């Protein structure tokens, strides 16, 4: 009987015929089943510490870009300007889409108009302070949105930006593209009298660098212009939706069943040929696997995630360009989700709905999977550091031995080699879990301290840059982010995008999601709280907007 169940699981993953729906899924899929894949995207976007830190980082980078461009600007009499998108760039609009959870509803004009009239003012962290900084520097902001061109919508948008508190939000500086490609609008805004210093958005099309909305064309642009992200263009992280996803914009050209099957096939292709052994096919008690679908899709199929990865590494690389490192200068970089792409492993987790023995599964994958891919821009950044003479310390949470007592250091070195990144200079430049702890403290912060003190390499080290995909990787804690979204970035927040660099990796739920569970339920949540309560808690915490009147009337 047990093997019958295993073969049934295999059939459901490998076969896509609609005839298998009732066998594998119990009933035909509805749109609300697909919306369920967006649950963790909403929660990360609205509540994760890393989401907030990434917003601070983006606007710190934006300040630095303005300063750089103003220094380079010729005295040509042209007015310096910036162009920024509004929704999910300056403000969090995810509650609009979260209102679809549990329903089969989709976008429609009446709902849009009510939202634009009632939209709550929820500024993204660092946005207002950046815009004030720009205005004080003599840079005029233009607000460009893809909303419907209608006098009512123009008034709604003007009123909303005033409630939000953005500077200079008068009708002359608010532009509505109404579906017209933004690159043309941006060219019209610039004209002959303005000089564009910076564009900011949450979608590739917001930047005006590529006229096509097709992801493959945008990825081709990235291949042809790898050094451009983060120089005069910046993207905010938004895994909720975009042109890479038909679901959030109600433009799927097929049925819910077909969309679900398409997503399953994409995950199977991503996971590759690796099939976990039968002993690790155990359901996760901590989350519903399909709720990770949207964040995985964003990280693997969107041009935006690849753009942000390059923008982070390009900004970090500026420190090392055309210079030689001073004695003891070093970087510390995390590996999984920062340097090596973990999406194939996560795709496998979704396919098999595993989690209870997740660390065992990870060890299987780390030793057996032939595909190890460096994050976009990581290889070039590390080569810059190496060429400048900076030391590179790889610090990872991977264990030195697996559950069977087998060495995991060599598989990790093999992974780095397959990813094409510089290998550690020696064994002391690859710190795995358990290496160089301070007594019983094996946290990353403890190991960073041992690097600085010279205990690791034999000489004191000046860590000038930290790079990772969680707060712990860059020596931050959630309390560091408890600052009003409209405040100035000071203290450690001012280091984001300058000496502390964060990569967006919402699929690493053991970081941000488990931290939220701890915040909600206490330190012993994993022992005291059952899976139903955990999953119900996630749904309750998501902020949703619904119109006060029926949009079907």
TrEMBL record:
It comes from Parendozoicomonas callyspongiae. The keyword Signal applies. It comes from the Bacteria. Keywords: Signal. The lineage of its organism: Bacteria, Pseudomonadati, Pseudomonadota, Gammaproteobacteria, Oceanospirillales. InterPro entries: Acid_phosphat_B-like, HAD-like_sf, HAD_sf. This is Acid phosphatase. Pfam families: Acid_phosphat_B (PF03767). Residues 1-21 form the signal peptide.
